[in-house]
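dumping this here before i forget
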Amino acid sequence: MVRSITEIVTEIKQAPTDSEQKLLTVHGSAIQIDLAEWLFNRLDQPANQPPAENSDSHKYLTYRRDPDNVVRVFYLAHTDTVQNLQEVATVIRSIAEIRRLFTYNSPRAIAMRGTAEQVGLAEWLVNQLDQPANAASAGKREYSVPGPGDPDNVVRVFSLTHAATVQRLQELAVQVRTMTRARRVFNYSAPRIIALRGTPGQVEQADQLIRERDQ
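structure:
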């Protein structure tokens, strides 16, 4: 898994491994090798070690013309299962539109490469989604996507208080998607969350629907 993540994030074409010696060999430019070493050191963590804090030390700037010039690793403290980790990754990948995003199960890590704007939104989503299942949320949890162009420039996270089952959560998510016509509506089962990206009007319509139907 570390090999696959390293190859795609660093754009190194081949990174052969030696299973017996537990070695990963990389061949590339000095910049690629430096990034590979940085990434490897952050992913090669003991499985039973508590997740590291998500500080700026887990951010790498490639300083290249490629607009996807930010590499970031996040450690999730409250995703108790692999399924939870995959659900969080799906929400982040789809809402932030990050093509190069990967999960590493043992340390409950998500590694990604994207633009500064995409990674900024991803960081906000991680903070909103990686919460204890019984955590109480207060206030409006909303993010304004910077930059012109995309009319779907508002992201909101809704915590449902009465969706007792995963099936009910999924039903509500389908209703929100259908009635608002928002393309990016996703649910996260463990803490009963619906995350949506759309126009301001779609987000407000979703807010009204959820308040009416989460009973």
